Amino acid sequence: MKLSHYKFDLPMELLAEYPAEHRDEARLMVLNRKEQTIEHKLFKDLIDYFDEGDLMVLNNTKVFPARMYGEKEKTGARIEVFLLRELNAESRLWDVLVDPARKIRIGNKLFFGDDESLVAEVIDNTTSRGRTLRFLYDGSYEEFRKKLQELGETPLPKYIKREVEPSDEERYQTIYAKHEGAVAAPTAGLHFSKHLMKRLEIKGIDFAEITLHVGLGTFSGVEVEDLSKHKMDSEKSLITPETAKIVNEAIDSKKRICAVGTTVMRSLESAVSSDQHLNAFDGWTNKFIFSPYDFSIANCMITNFHTPKSTLMMMTAAFAGYDFLMKAYKEAIKEKYKFYSYGDAMLII
Question: I want to staple 238 with a disulfide (CB 3.0 to 4.6 A). Which of 32, 75, 200, 211 is the partner?
């Protein structure tokens, strides 16, 4: 498969600026791979497709307020700083993206907050927009992290043109988020409400959790026509022995195992044992999944509608079948489903 196979015309008005009013009332398109049928439902109808003992695997990563605004010393120019990952806690070194990048050079200082109590010094260039910053703050590490929380805002994707609103802090986060480290939400999970989770539990559906800290690499564009030459950025992933045990018991019992989101699918596929079971895993994954691909663990998947030529769309096409997914996307556009992070969902069984 080539990059151009994943091109389609997506009307701009179908990019969701806001989430559905109620989490579990987003629309849900259900794709049955065996029957090649497409159904139109609401997300809360998901419960009808699962039986007692079936398993849903969730990504419990938590989004931190990664987007900050500082002022450049001397000129006072406003600079956006997007925190990507902490490199060294003791030295307070961070990998960041800066915008506009052309103004930011090694040795520059940036000041944050009205009282300028937080300062950062640029110590390295990493990519065209990437920099390494050393933060200078007069306080303990806990106080420093609290300051970042205070000054940062919810890192909504760039396609959302509006300002961040107070409601985004809650809605751009899954209700089961636990471990902070993501700069983007695992969006398939945004549709789960407390009420729906309770109903699923009562029906006897089991849950297991992995942690994959979503980085911006998940959304990086593919620049090469030959997909085998694309390199994914690495993201931190954790699968505990307990989760591996739950998943492996579901495999042995021939239950439905549903990966809630592309991040979960990537984590699971990064830790497959030689006998097609799941290993515990604690490390980094840069796995890039595209057609043709044999999936080993999950036999069902929940995902949002993705943008053209994205790695997320490529993985979904590998799971659903390329022709079937393209047919579904065509129907989604006709039926005005909402795409991307705050958009509607798809269940592939």
Answer: 211
Strand partners, 153: 67
Cis status, amide bond into 100, omega within 30 of 0: yes
- Whose CA is closest to 49, among 197, 260, 256? 256
3-state secondary structure of 240: coil
pLDDT value of residue 219: 67
Stretches where the chain sits below pLDDT 70 are: 218-219
DSSP string, 71-111: EETTT--EEEEEEEEEEETTTTEEEEEEESGGG--TT-EEE
CA–chain centroid gap for 153, Å, is 17
Query: CA neighbours within 13 Å on the CB side: how many for 144?
Result: 17
C-alpha 317 chain-centroid distance? 17
Q: CA 142 → CA 16, 154, 181, 183, 218, distances in Å?
A: 36, 20, 15, 20, 29
Mean pLDDT of the chain: 94
First to last CA, the chain: 23
Contacts of 18 (CB under 8 A, 6+ apart): 342
Instruction: Return the pLDDT at 74.
Output: 83
Q: Measure the CA–CA gap between 256 and 75, rounded to whole angstroms.
A: 58
Burial of 234 (C-beta count, 10 Å sphere; 0-12/13-18/19+): middle
| Pair of tokens at residue 173 | 């986060």
